[in-house]
Write a structure and sequence with these properties.
Strand content: 25-35%
Strand order of the largest sheet: 3-2-1-4-5-9-6-10
Largest sheet: 8 strands, mixed
Helix content: 10-25%
Shape: globular
CATH class: Alpha Beta
Order of helices and strands: HHEHEEEHEHEEEEE
Oligomer: single chain
CATH topology: Rossmann fold
Number of helices: 5
Number of strands: 10
Distance between the termini: 35 Å
CATH superfamily: Vaccinia Virus protein VP39
CATH architecture: 3-Layer(aba) Sandwich
Length: about 190
């Protein structure tokens, strides 16, 4: 049996037939953000610090939130262009789909740059790992929203194949003190 067939049986893929997107740019499906904002209420400005083409911000505006967009790459949408990891800007809330390879540095920075909540779309495997274990002991998320169906990131306005990754919304609420709550979303 080939490796590809073994990965298919296990419900995953090695993605050898796909080219990884430059700068880990995979847009967040708007439906995934809508489901989040139906379930998670925020107060104040929402900042997407890795906004891409503003998929998250467009939905936040649908929910009448005040928003702010920034990214490292200028994608022609009028966002402020700078490296989030080097900024000292502070906003009320951060909702973002960070580059997967920089998820932990983004999270650590986001917790310093937000007054209320940090919400990130991450792989469920983000819960694993020795470095993240140490981080989670001091900074547990207040909620994790797991999608009952797989979320397919978007590239050029189209779903990126069938996702073998389980993506979740991880929420850190600076005003919450308790155990992490796991909830499920379906769209």
């Amino acid at each position: 049996m080939s490796n590809k067939n073994v990965f298919s049986l296990l419900g995953s893929t090695n993605h050898t037939d796909k080219v990884r997107e430059k700068d880990d740019f995979y847009e967040t499906p708007k439906e995934a953000t809508r489901e989040l904002l139906k379930n998670e209420k925020l107060e104040g400005v929402i900042w997407d610090c890795a906004c891409g083409k503003n998929a998250i911000i467009d939905v936040a505006k649908e929910f009448n939130y005040e928003t702010y967009s920034s990214d490292l790459i200028d994608r022609g949408i009028g966002a402020d262009i700078f490296n989030f990891l080097d900024t000292d800007i502070i906003k009320d809330n951060i909702i973002t789909n960070p580059p997967f390879k920089l998820a932990l540095p983004f999270l650590k920075k986001a917790l310093k740059c937000s007054n209320n909540k940090v919400i990130m779309l991450l792989r469920i495997q983000f819960l694993e790992g020795k470095e993240r274990y140490e981080f989670f002991k001091e900074n547990p998320p207040s909620k994790v929203y797991v999608f009952a169906n797989r979320v397919n990131p978007v590239i050029d306005g189209k779903p990126y194949g069938s996702s073998a990754m389980c993506l979740c919304w991880f929420v850190w609420d600076k005003n919450y003190n308790g155990d992490t709550v796991v909830k499920w979303l379906k769209y």
